[in-house]
Amino acid sequence: MNTWITSRAFFEKVIISLFVLLSAWWLILFFVYKHTFPHADLVWAASYQIIAILGAIFGLVIAKQWGGFKSALGRSILLFSTGLLLQSFGQSVFSFYNLFLEIDIPYPSISDIGFFGSILFYIYGALVLGNVFGAKVSLKNTFNRILIVIIPAIILFISYYFFLRAYEFDGVSPLQVFLDFGYPLGQAIYLALAISVFILSSKFLGGVLRSSISFILVALIVQYVADYNFLYQALNGTWVNGDYGDYIYLLSYTVLSLGLIKVGDAFYRTKFSESTKDISEENLALNTPEILTQIILSIIKRQEKVAGQIAWEEAKDVLGKDAVDQQKEEILIKDRSSSNLKKLIDGLVFRYKQLFGDLAIEVSKNAARNLLAELSKEETPESLK
Q1: Which residues on adjacent β-strands are paired with residue 331?
Q2: Phi, psi of 356 (to 5 degrees)
Q3: pLDDT tens digits for 34-74?
Q4: pLDDT tens across 139-165, in order?
Q5: b (16+ CB within 10 A) / e for 333-357
Q6: 199, burial (CB in 10 Å: exposed 0-12, middle 13-18, buried 19+)
Q7: pLDDT recorded at residue 145
Q8: In terms of CATH architecture, what is 1-273?
Q9: pTM
Q10: Domain spans of the chain?
């Protein structure tokens, strides 16, 4: 446990320290020397990707802790971390041409594998994240369904208006046409998704994951600002390496990296949280169906501490909407046979595992530990053994 705390805190300090140092370096180059040393600007522009690399490495480790590709949250963290690595790859190729070959990078080039690839990973990551934190539930609301159409439509129109409405196809290769359209439209899609997920999940996102997921969504918005600015300046021939445009990228890498670290912090806080209090004398007198019903409620309430309202929404989906009274914190299942209750517990734990990985099983066992002590091995649900 101490090793985990140390590594997480160490990565966070490294990211923040690097951001401060790189910011100070950029301020000197930008305001003091004012681009009078172009080579120094290129070196700085090639250096700040270190934050993306470190953030991605930590994110890959965290994704594994949350279940990797087997869980929705682990999968989304993998996608965002890979997106950061692809950004770094594209930037490395870009810097290699500028610093070592001392020529302008061709377009299209191998760097577009990284830059365009990151867009695809960010889009998929935002979609998965929305599924984890209640976007699906929110879309049952008519206003939200209208909103989810309007937001992307507006952003896509803006991207088309500024970058594509006067596009000339003559003499342009099919690959360049694809990228010229793919960049602004792809970036508009992940921005629309980030904003939509932020709005739609605001009611459901909570618990220890709230701040970390908010960091990630904000990072996608900052990333879009950086990408939009790059496209706009490149289109108008005003892009300068090491200028404020690069600093926006530094900011987006930092925010996303800190978001991934906070997801790691949420994992630690969940994994090593205190177990439930000892059962009361009242609970000691419960029969098996009543104990199993209390286990269901305990699991939901503990999962709520991890992810917020979505824990209740998933429970309603598994158990039935009428079976869960959140306001009174009661479970009202008609078939209270032990076999049915055990089946429902297994289904509920499996649903949480799909979202949050094996940690969800640990959380569920921890929540039910004292109540499980009152059951025989045969009476204990398979998922909690």
Answers
A1: 324
A2: -125, 5
A3: 888 899 999 999 999 999 999 999 999 999 999 999 999 99
A4: 677 787 888 889 889 999 999 998 998
A5: beeeebeebbebbeebbebbbbbbb
A6: middle
A7: 83
A8: Up-down Bundle (1.20)
A9: 0.90
A10: 1-273, 288-384
